[in-house]
Amino acid sequence: MDLGGARTASTARVTTLAADADAVNTETDTPVTPVTSTLRGVSGGFTYTFPENSVTFLRIKQR
Fold it and tell me: Do 7 and 59 touch, CB atoms closer than 8 A?
């Protein structure tokens, strides 16, 4: 990711929704659920590999 050299915190909060391409949540089964983690090594430019079949939110704070 290229953040244009922005000054950022060194960590970011990552929330990912990932599942099989045909996964569907129902009343009794929730294969698509959010998973939260911490990404370290964030800077004005860094590499991140997104899981396939996912929607990912990176919350990066500015310094």
Answer: no
Whose CA is closest to 60, among 11, 5, 15? Answer: 11
User: In Å, how far are 31, 33, 62, 63 from 56, measured between CA atoms?
Assistant: 16, 12, 19, 22
According to the model, what pLDDT value does residue 5 have? Answer: 85
Residue 20 CA, chain-centre distance (Å), reads 17
* Longest CA–CA separation in the chain, Å: 46
pLDDT 10s digits, 4-59 = 989 999 999 999 999 999 999 999 999 999 999 999 999 999 999 999 999 999 99
The DSSP-derived string for 33-52 is -EEEEEEE---SB---PPPT
Domain coordinates in residue numbering, the chain: 1-19+32-63
